[in-house]
Amino acid sequence: MYQLDDLLHLMARLRDPQHGCPWDLKQSYASIVPYTLEEAYEVADAINRQSFTELKDELGDLLLQVVFQSQMFSEKGAFDFNDVVDAISEKLIRRHPHVFQADQFKDLSSDQVSELWKQIKLQEKKDKSVSRLDEIKHAPALVQAQEVQKKAAQLGFDFETVTDAYAKLEEELGELQQAIRNQKNDEIQEEFGDCLFSLINVGRKLGQSSEMALLATIYKFRSRFAFIEQQAQRQHKDLQEMSLAEMDELWEQAKRQLKTEGKTHDFVEATQQT
User: Fold this and answer.
1) What CATH number has the domain bearing residue 201?
2) Which of 83, 126, 165, 207 could cross-link 159 (Cys pair, CB 3.0–4.6 Å)?
3) Looking at the structure, do residues 57 and 86 belong to the same domain, yes or no?
4) Nearest CA to 98 among 112, 82, 119, 81?
5) Which of 182, 183, 161, 179 is CA-nearest to residue 171?
6) Which pLDDT band holds residue 274 (cuts at 50, 70, 90)?
7) What is the CA radius of gyration of the chain?
8) Does the pLDDT value for residue 134 go beyond 90?
């Protein structure tokens, strides 16, 4: 059975400049971030589906991301995997004095442990600049954007009405159109991000969860596309060889069929119950 040292050796071999894998060698600490997020979501999905056989593989994929990053930073002389293990071990011991210094912290209640945890975290951050927004945890972008906006609104930094927020969205869309005309990729990315942020803000003002709204739309798209695939199979047609007009016709059928079955509404109700 392979051990952790074997995995570290495999990763170093993949990154070997002479004999490694061209794809792995081309990657940077920034380029693999999307894969790290994807693997984290797949771990969560396997847990939610209670698919524990898949979970073993997904946890391995997520571990690989940690090993990959550690290898790349080791090549820069910054830190290696052992340093990562050392840092998290020190943090666990530091933040659990009621466990590792039990003689000094006896019989603490759950509330007292929580308060002790907060005090330790504040002590760790005492020499760092603190923003009110630092209270917002890093999360999926949609969730984080909405929480940042919510916190700013609590401090009085907010549009007065939905109409005002929508006007800002229209302004950002105009700037995106101009960026597209300029054909400058960095500018397009910035303006596209501003549009997304503004749209999320409109949703927040309307009392909508952007995460739940988008998940419902993704579910709807998946269901309709699956319907197209099923119908194509029944008609003995290759989906890739069908014309866009043929697929559009099946798409409209899917909309009618799934609306009748109420599948999208079932998904929305299910997400609201979780």
Assistant:
1) 1.10.287.1080
2) 165
3) yes
4) 112
5) 179
6) very low
7) 25
8) no
